[in-house]
Amino acid sequence: MSLTDKTCVPCQGGVAPMDRQQAEQMLVQVPEWSLDTDARMIYRRFKFRNFIDALSFVNRVTEVAEAEDHHPDILLGYGYAEVRIQTHKIEGLHENDFILAAKVDALGA
User: What positions belong to coiled-coil segments?
Assistant: First the structure.
């Protein structure tokens, strides 16, 4: 089953975050994303022609995030939006983060 076919499940905490090796294995499924140096977050910078296009993309990401009840951090500027995803409750990465990344990718930039 592909990540886009899955649904984020609520994380109640008490679950260990993925280690670097697990995260790198999951990253293969969302190859445009990068792992931060601590392996606690994935991120991707999307480029656009202008601010309006970037904002439109962020609004579409918001709809997906609300539907999945999993919310990324987003940096927005002229011609770009950077999406950063982690599971805050466990201060690291969970399968949910990669599911959301795949669904953001499916929006097309």
Answer: none
